[in-house]
Design brief:
AB_hydrolase_fold, Pimeloyl-ACP methyl ester carboxylesterase, alpha/beta, 34% helix
């Protein structure tokens, strides 16, 4: 079974490197692409989906923004299983913080320069949201193209999606980005912040071995 994997917003696969899967699974990572200027979201999803080979059975696994992405890819290329970690099944599960961005359109007026490496406030915000006790948090965030980051924040805040009941959702009960109180996950990682795939890898691996049998 091939599993196509999309990591989180701005994250490479280091955040997922400790996860273990059944031996019969072959992981294929889909790297984030840099959006073209003013590229519609559906066009971007189509480009991300190009790597998925539908000639044989496959599953999709997404973390954080990657969870949103694999659900969109699933609409174009239906998978046998779709698993999302630290992500949401529909726009109804957005936090009040994200909904505020959707209503006010504030992410659209953020200057691109706000997302560059020299923006000191970016680190403090990311650390507070993802895992306030993790001093090495930025090691997981390697895709730092400012336009990509601004575009991604906009798309998360604007995302509209009807829940697909078959999607398997794994959430941490200490996640601030996508708080568990707005969702009804299939699996809960106790003590898991938004970075639980890295910090609670044993618990997550056990679940993944049950799901991908």
């Amino acid at each position: 079974m091939k599993i196509y994997v999309v990591s989180g917003l701005g994250a490479d696969f280091k955040v997922l490197e400790r996860l273990e899967f059944p031996e019969n699974c072959e992981l294929i990572f889909i790297d984030w692409l840099i959006p073209e200027k003013n590229e519609p979201f559906h066009s971007y999803v189509e480009r991300m989906a190009e790597k998925v080979d539908v000639s044989e059975p496959f599953s999709l696994l997404g973390y954080s923004f990657g969870g949103i992405m694999v659900q969109e890819i699933n609409k174009l290329k239906p998978a046998q299983k779709v698993v999302i970690m630290g992500s949401i099944k529909s726009d109804k599960e957005k936090s009040k913080f994200i909904k505020t961005g959707e209503i006010t359109k504030i992410p659209r007026i953020f200057p691109v320069g706000m997302f560059n490496d020299k923006a000191a406030n970016v680190y403090s915000v990311v650390r507070k949201l993802f895992d306030p006790k993790n001093p090495k948090i930025l090691q997981y965030f390697r895709v730092r193209d400012p336009y990509y980051l601004k575009w991604s924040v906009e798309k998360v805040s604007e995302w509209k999606f009807e829940e697909i009941p078959e999607v398997i959702q794994i959430l941490g009960d200490k996640d601030i980005v996508f708080p568990i109180k707005y969702s009804k996950p299939d699996y809960v990682i106790k003590g898991g912040t938004h970075l639980f795939p890295a910090t609670k890898s044993k618990e997550v691996s056990k679940i993944l071995k049950e799901v991908f049998v």
